[in-house]
Amino acid sequence: QEKSCHLSAALLGEDSEISQDQLYELLKYAALGKCHSAAQPSWCRIYHQSHLAGVVVVVLHEMSQLHFYRFYLQFKHLRKVFRHRFTLAPSANFPVSLYGEGTNLKSRNTPQGLTSTSSECITKSSNLQCDPIIQRYGEKKQGLTSYTLTLEEQKKNDYPIEGSPGCKGYISTECDQQRTDSSPLFGLDCEMCLTAKGNEVTRVSLVDAQGQCLLNELVKPESTVVNYRTRFSGITKKMLLPVKTRLSDIQTRLKKMLPHDAVLVGHSLNSDLQALEMIHPSVIDTSLLFARSEGRRFKLKFLAKAVLGKEIQCEQKLGHDPTEDARAALELAQFFIEQGPTKVAELNLEMLLTAEKLAEVSQNKAVLQPQGCGFQEQLNEPPPLSKPCFLDCLQMTGQKTLLLGKEGLDSSGLCQSNPSTSNKQILQRALEDVPLSKFSIIQFSLGPEYLASHLHAGLHEKVRSKLTDMLTIYAGPFEENFCMKSVKKEFGRCGPIQSLTVVTETFQPYVCIQYEVLEAAQLAVESLNGAEVAGSCIKVQRPVTAAMLDCNVLIKELELDVENEGVIYVAGLKKSLTETDLQEEFSQLKDLETLFLPKDLQSGKHRNCCFLKFQKTQSAVDALEAINGWTMKGSKLRSRNALAPGHLWRWIWQMNHRNGKQGKHIFYEKMEQLSDSEQDLRKKVKKLDHHIKKLYRSLQNNTLCIVLFPGVNSTQGSQSGLGLMGIKHDEGRSAC
């Protein structure tokens, strides 16, 4: 059964802000896996990366987190499908930060005016047929017995053979049982020194199929050592002085350790077996397995880096580590067997080796360049690349990449624009080309008329004022001489208060309270409307403005947001409680996964509320029932379903504090009509959401899809971006 890919990310709270480098880290690993020094990203994890069908990145050009929450109701598909979200730090040069420096893609305009960039690669049917690996093994995946050397191949490559003239006195491992595709693999490597007799073993390593070291032993040569070959072997005279183990001891131990159907794996294993003076009938030689033309062979160090993404035989170390080499050879054989010849051929190792050699030549040229070069020559020399483009690596491995949209990259990494191209045209091309590409970047845009800085400023003000209204409640009426302290205490149990003022324009006093989190304001409306506070039966309501008429709809949709599944909000905590205290108090709750304690981003002090994330939705429902009315350290708790994910909580805080700590509440008494441009913008956003929905539904299962609102970083100011991501599965929603 095919393994499905999964994605996990701890994005609750302050950790939900991701830098451009961290995004690049994710894309590189998703595209390349463990090859080319790509590693699991530090902030999230992709399980079964090798089973990813592809990676699709949708970039919403010059849009920010601001757009997502201003048009939250219009982005119906995005908010219902993608479980993982993160705030994206804006970048001054987003294309370079996304694709990596040194992007070697060249844009070309199609007849429709689209900018479409694809890696120029020959189709599999014509390209791979010429590959030595395919010519030797065919295209289909086979069992390990298909890759063991035949007797003729062993003779041709100087392996010790039973009865051969040069093998007199050699010891057989006596592993003569019939091999099957489930026979155990063992990695073997030896280090040798030069003696009066020739090459003799000085160290032997054996690892099992799990990479566990079974043997790592120094061996004393029989003859006088002429050259220890310390640079390669790491062996010195001092190391061998106390050693008592002889070759015959190692031969005996190996015979006992290897089962009768064992298959030995090594790189140029014939040299190791000759030095061990042992005969073994079933071997996989990785120097021959990864076949090259004209009898040439890849070095183990290169294969480990290109195929496994591992650095071995580092220059900093004294000599080779035989255990490391044995394990590398074993893992290379396992990779070949598991992935099959076609996958290995698609790595295009010859091209990678050529690129590596060119890089070395270029580096040596830079090191050897004499001082005193003319200024003009220095100007003509391209600057060193600090971050290579993983798309170039994909091209070198023969995998097709796609860049499609109005904003393309020219050879310098700068954006080019084709304003005549519509989002509909881009979508149609994407539906045709994405299935043919391993890595795709699709760019949509609202159009230049909606990207002006003054429109951004207006959009920011509208979002800020609506959020302020949603965070604000009015409570009253109260008696003339009511106790403000009692009111503050009661409403403070719903969550952190940013400001509290008395409204005196009314016949009886009212109180205007602005909270720091949406859940607190909603909890106050739900739990204190109609309650008796400070001796008065009060009404609790939000401000009535044109922008707030759909507030209840928005609250309901936020509650149903996929990112809030299994997350509850708890208020009324004593500020003296630490995170450790809370972990202990809430430990009895079933399936509790994460506890997030919001902090003031200026003072660092935590608030009197927290968010609890559960592994199962039902566990969150049960926890709500248990916590409401719960008393903790003398304080009565209140709770409800979460409305604002961690990244939104941080963003709200920044919005409210951008214009000073108090973030004055703006109250619009005058009913304002939506302008024609904003009505049109809503329609465009809704259509854009529909385009993304259509593209998403066309993707294969196990495709990683990331939607990016890049944010804005210009001289006029900056706006944080937003990322939404998930791996598509059959059920339509992106996987956890």
Task: Describe what you observe in this structure.
Pfam families: RNase_T, RRM_1. GO terms for molecular function: exonuclease activity; RNA binding. The structure is a single chain. The chain starts with 5 loop residues before the first strand and ends with a strand. Helix 1 (20-32) packs parallel to helix 18 (390-396) and helix 19 (423-433) packs parallel to helix 27 (676-698). The protein has 3 domains: 54-99 and 388-449 and 677-728, Alkaline Phosphatase, subunit A; 142-339, Ribonuclease H-like superfamily/Ribonuclease H (Nucleotidyltransferase, domain 5, 2-Layer Sandwich); 458-658, Alpha-Beta Plaits, CATH 3.30.70.330. The protein is elongated, with a radius of gyration of 33 Å. Helix content is 35%, strand content 21%. Strand 28 (631-632) and strand 29 (635-636) form a beta hairpin. The strands form 10 sheets. Strands 2, 4, 5, 6, 15, 18, 31, 34 and 35 form a 9-stranded mixed β-sheet that branches. Strands 8, 9, 10, 11, 12 and 14 form a 6-stranded mixed β-sheet that branches. A 4-stranded antiparallel β-sheet has the order 20-21-19-24. The protein has 736 residues and is α+β, with helices and mostly antiparallel strands. Residues 102-126, 366-387, 408-419 and 659-674 have low confidence and may be disordered. The longest helix is centred in the last third of the chain and has 23 residues, at 676-698.
